[in-house]
């Protein structure tokens, strides 16, 4: 499974559209390459943009959520490992 879109925006899967829009604005502003000199700012900005593109569209979000649930059920140990790695990575952020 690729990057977790909810994690990219720092949101739970129960987030509302308003939550998604607010988180996108905050994260996009923070990671925008013109404002953030970090070497991974452009990549993080891209991940935030992609997450917003998927989660702000009701149909794409439903497909994404369905796929997330399927992946969790198909290989729960791998999914748990990915979730833990994403969590640890997020804890290392400034």
The helix/strand order is HHHHH
Number of helices: 5
Classify the helix fraction into a percent range. Answer: over 70%
Q: Please report the distance between the alpha carbons of the first and last residues.
A: 25 Å
Taking the sheet with the most strands, its summary is: none
- State the CATH class: Mainly Alpha
Strand content: under 5%
CATH superfamily: DnaJ domain
Organism: Simplicispira suum
Protein name: Molecular chaperone DnaJ
InterPro entries: DjlA_DnaK_co-chaperone, DnaJ_domain, J_dom_sf
Task: Sum up the structure in keywords.
94 residues; mainly alpha; Helix Hairpins; 5 helices; globular; J_dom_sf; DjlA_DnaK_co-chaperone; DnaJ_domain; Molecular chaperone DnaJ
3D architecture notes:
This is Molecular chaperone DnaJ. Pfam families: DnaJ. The chain has 94 residues and is mostly helical. The protein has a single domain, classed as Helix Hairpins, CATH 1.10.287.110. The chain contains 5 helices and no strands. The protein has helices at residues 5-9, 17-31, 41-55, 58-74, 76-91. Helix 2 packs antiparallel against helix 3 (41-55). The longest helix has 17 residues, at 58-74. It is globular.
In short:
It comes from Simplicispira suum. The chain has 94 residues and is mostly helical.
Task: Please render the helix and strand layout as text.
Blueprint: H1 5-9, H2 17-31, H3 41-55, H4 58-74, H5 76-91
Helix pairs in contact: 2-3, 4-5
């Amino acid at each position: 499974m690729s990057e977790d879109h909810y994690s990219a925006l720092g949101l739970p899967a129960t987030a509302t559209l308003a939550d998604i829009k607010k988180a996108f604005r905050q994260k996009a502003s923070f990671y925008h390459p013109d404002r953030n000199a970090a070497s991974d700012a452009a990549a993080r900005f891209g991940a935030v943009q992609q997450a917003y593109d998927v989660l702000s569209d009701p149909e794409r979000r439903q497909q994404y959520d369905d796929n997330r649930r399927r992946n969790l059920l198909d290989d729960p140990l791998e999914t748990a490992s990915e979730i833990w790695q994403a969590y640890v990575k997020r804890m290392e952020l400034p």
